[in-house]
Specification:
This protein has helices at residues 16-29, 47-54, 80-86, 96-102, 106-118, 131-135, 139-150, 156-160, 180-197, 200-205, 219-223, 240-251; strands at 5-9, 37-41, 59-63, 90-93, 122-127, 163-166, 207-211, 230-233. By secondary structure, the chain is α/β, with parallel strands linked by helices. The two termini are 15 Å apart. It binds 2-phosphoglycolic acid (PGA).
Length: 252
């Protein structure tokens, strides 16, 4: 019942021409893929050019961040209205790099996600514990706080159009992927949390992505877990063959 979602987060990589070249190739290579939602998150500067290449394709566009306001005197920010205008359907919010380097908090994540919903952008809301949290046995309490605060005030309809990405910080860009049972344990925990806040029926419909050193070799095993409904891919999304192999592995 949950359509798998495979999203590529390019972070601070690719010029406009590199991005256009990638998605032109991806469009061809993934043309016959059905039953998986494919999402690409280029840097802001490439969004509009990429959107033009993706018209009429099975690939969706995401931004890597958004500001909470629609417009105003906020130098350097990009609003949800602007992202919609550029062709985005999704936006990644609360990535651990934003939390770690740019002072993103659960409160700012929540305001951004609400703004995204108001303007019809689907948030991919990222949560995940640091290594010291895991070692101290605090994984669940850390993830619980991030999820509960991040989705605070979301209506039933809003939670259904949100994807939650569990990305343990120790697994991001390190080559150390969480074991599939570790991913499942946290995903199952997040889904039980959602059933408590909403209903079991709604919780069953929310897609939970895993992120952190995902590649074509480990995707199938992660996706085979009951509560892993997709992946959020950094490094391995930068080469088109590698990304297409992940999409195919996610399809099963
Ligand atoms: P990675 O990044 O796949 O390079 O570990 C994942 C992410 O940051 O979303």
């Amino acid at each position: 019942m949950r359509t798998p979602i495979v999203a590529g987060n390019w972070k601070l990589y690719k010029t406009i021409s590199e991005a256009v070249e990638f998605v032109s190739a991806l469009r061809e290579l993934a043309a016959d893929v059905t039953g998986v939602e494919i999402v690409i998150a280029p840097p802001f500067t490439a969004l509009s050019a990429v959107a033009k290449v993706l018209v009429g394709s099975n690939i969706r566009l995401a931004a890597q961040d958004v500001f909470r306001e629609e417009k105003g005197a906020f130098t350097g920010e990009v609003s949800p209205v602007m992202l919609k205008d550029a062709g985005c359907g999704y936006v990644i919010i609360g990535h651990s790099e934003r939390r770690g380097y740019f002072g993103e908090t659960d409160a700012s994540v929540n305001r951004k996600a609400k703004a995204a919903h108001i303007h019809g952008l689907k948030p991919i809301l990222c949560v995940g514990e640091k290594l010291e949290d895991r070692n101290a046995g605090n994984t669940q309490s850390v993830v619980e706080a991030q999820v509960v605060k991040g989705i605070s005030g979301f209506s039933e309809a809003e939670i259904l159009s949100t994807a939650i990405a569990y990305e343990p910080v120790w697994a991001i860009g390190t080559g150390i992927t969480a074991r599939s049972d570790q991913a499942q344990e946290v995903h199952g925990f997040i889904r039980s949390l959602l059933s408590r806040i909403y209903s079991t029926d709604s919780a069953k419909q929310v897609r939970l992505q895993y992120g952190g050193s995902v590649n074509a070799a480990n995707t199938a095993e992660l996706m085979a877990q009951m509560d892993v409904d997709g992946v959020l891919v950094g490094g391995a999304s930068l080469e088109v063959e590698s990304f297409v192999n992940i999409v195919k592995a996610a399809h099963g």
